[in-house]
Amino acid sequence: MDIEQTKIPQATAKRLPLYYRFLNNLHTQGKLRVSSKELSDAVKVDSATIRRDFSYFGALGKKGYGYNVEYLLSFFRKTLDQDETTRVALIGVGNLGTAFLNYNFTKNNNTKIEIAFDANDERVGSEVGGVGVEHINDLEEKLGDISVAILTVPSSAAQGIADRLVNAGISGILNFTPARISVPSNVRVHHIDLAIELQALVYFLKHYPLNEGEVEEDQ
Amino acid sequence: MDIEQTKIPQATAKRLPLYYRFLNNLHTQGKLRVSSKELSDAVKVDSATIRRDFSYFGALGKKGYGYNVEYLLSFFRKTLDQDETTRVALIGVGNLGTAFLNYNFTKNNNTKIEIAFDANDERVGSEVGGVGVEHINDLEEKLGDISVAILTVPSSAAQGIADRLVNAGISGILNFTPARISVPSNVRVHHIDLAIELQALVYFLKHYPLNEGEVEEDQ
DNA sequence: CGGAAGTCGTTAAAGATTTCACATACTTCA
DNA sequence: TGAAGTATGTGAAATCTTTAACGACTTCCG
Ligand SMILES: NC(=O)c1ccc[n+]([C@@H]2O[C@H](COP(=O)([O-])OP(=O)(O)OC[C@H]3O[C@@H](n4cnc5c(N)ncnc54)[C@H](O)[C@@H]3O)[C@@H](O)[C@H]2O)c1
Ligand SMILES: NC(=O)c1ccc[n+]([C@@H]2O[C@H](COP(=O)([O-])OP(=O)(O)OC[C@H]3O[C@@H](n4cnc5c(N)ncnc54)[C@H](O)[C@@H]3O)[C@@H](O)[C@H]2O)c1
């Protein structure tokens, strides 16, 4: 496998799944070629940034032509490991957890929520979105070799569950609780803090007024 | 009002709500003072970054002492406009929309979802999490002067609804759909793309192995 | 009261990311 | 075939962000 491809910048890495998705759309639409400019319009990322991002992987395009959609797509499919499915566990089948289970990130995706856990006896044993809900007491026993977890428990339970996940050998946690959890340095946590996202948007609206001439930016 | 406080960096602005929340926690716990180091441990942001962030607002702390929790909190309350509630509309009362309505970002927050819209006649007229659901046809009529919208409709409907929101005078959209919507330059859109967040986490896990000695980072 | 310990605010350095701008090479079409 | 057009890949510059380091001042405690 392509080990150590001389470190892609993090900012680039975060955009890769986005590129991949739009490339997929183009492919489905039957498009054969695409320029960085077109892609830029679609994903709202500066075209120079896109070219730079792609260039980290070598020369994927052709001057005067652009990029071959099929080739680019198959390249990213490999790069993003789209062929092997990553199995995911979800902890906390409440409002948010239920939404995720019903959605299950199914479309053009290499991840699948395979098992869910909850502390509420009424939920345990049921199925949500085709995923069975187990009791949190059985976490260690039933997690198996799943290495990624989505955390949607009440924030008061977050650190405790995180500790247990770490003990059970998890590698990555997508944390939706407002709690900033502590984990050993070999475990990766991404926080998605929805309340903060909303507050930040409100703050930007009040303090960074956009002019009729500026271009809006995301995230 | 504190107009033009000589532009806070965006990276700092995004952390303010996080600081505010933890300050609030400390205050509730009865803590009187806090150092940048303590805060750093709690929010997982480097202490130098925290001091730098605070310094954009002037000298809020005292050398050798730290920060007075009450003072800092009340300062941020003003800065983040925590006293005036921002009214928010939610479009698309499906899996995700329902979760948000039930949650409603109630705790220590200056935002409130006041009205929801959906196209499904069965949902219209009902209440979810105490918020009435209106028909999407009545969007323009019932939106009033609400300036922020959360978009949780199917991605195929996203651009169309966004256009209508813009026409109805919206200023900011928190977009949860995978569609990258186009809006005039005076409207701000923040994308929260959950599928991409999950894929990015998986990518990082495979390609950026963490060593036992490194410290994990978020987002 | 005085010295040790603690902590800020900031200068400066380092690091990361974006953007510009253009030489280069391919495509297209007459 | 050759001229005009197009769009990449990248060096260099600009911008933004983080981190280290430390002087200045405060608190703490014997
Ligand atoms: N719902 C939202 O829109 C929203 C928005 C922002 C943040 N969040 C955060 O996401 C998290 C979940 O929110 P929610 O609205 O889904 O809450 P919820 O109360 O609806 O769901 C939490 C679920 O976790 C289960 N649970 C509780 N303790 C547990 C434990 N120890 N082990 C396993 N399961 C346990 C509960 O039985 C419940 O089903 C919370 O931390 C919340 O702050 C939610
Ligand atoms: N649920 C998730 O976990 C999840 C995860 C990632 C992304 N998303 C994205 O979030 C969006 C919503 O997801 P969901 O799972 O809640 O979908 P959903 O199908 O459960 O909900 C969509 C809702 O929008 C309503 N709707 C459809 N067309 C409308 C229109 N024109 N105007 C107003 N309302 C309309 C539907 O009646 C439905 O209630 C989708 O774009 C999805 O891709 C969802």
Automatic annotation (TrEMBL), chains A, B:
GO annotation terms (biological process): negative regulation of DNA-templated transcription; response to redox state
Pfam families: CoA_binding, Put_DNA-bind_N
Keyword Repressor: yes
DNA-binding region ranges: 18-57
Main subcellular location of this protein, as a coarse class: cytoplasm
GO MF terms held by the record: DNA binding; DNA-binding transcription factor activity
Compartments, record wording: Cytoplasm
Quaternary structure note: Homodimer.
Similarity comment: Belongs to the transcriptional regulatory Rex family.
Alphabetized PANTHER family for the sequence: REDOX-SENSING TRANSCRIPTIONAL REPRESSOR REX, REDOX-SENSING TRANSCRIPTIONAL REPRESSOR REX 1
Protein role: Modulates transcription in response to changes in cellular NADH/NAD(+) redox state.
Protein name: Redox-sensing transcriptional repressor Rex
Annotated organism of origin: Halobacillus litoralis
